[in-house]
Amino acid sequence: MFTNEASEHNQDAAKYTKRIKAPIYHPSNKKPHILELYDCSKMKRLLNKINASNVSDDEKKFLKFAAQRHNVFTYSKIADYYAHSSKEMQVLMEDSALVIIDFDKAIQHGYVKLSEEMTQQYLKEQDEK
What we know:
The protein has 129 residues and is mainly alpha-helical. It is 59% helix and 3% strand. The protein has a two-stranded antiparallel sheet. 3% of the residues are buried.
């Protein structure tokens, strides 16, 4: 019985040590409308409350910046929009980390942070290619 448990443990551990391939996205044939890419309804509600409040102007400014974090992005539609956009728009979307096309560039700009162990594994795999 112990052997079976050890074997199951080894099989489970193997699942997590296999090389993971990045998903490949296949864009649709339709460019979504820009308003389909995000939902800012919660942010707008917060801004209305902030504007109606009696806090100082500096506090309002801070709260308005913080409210932006409540915007919700629809990344599948963002990817479709990216695929059908001009090169200039694509670069701006990449710079904003709305899409990550170049993994090395994403690491360089700090959009993707890897633990030291993951970094070493990634570098090893790149050398093997």
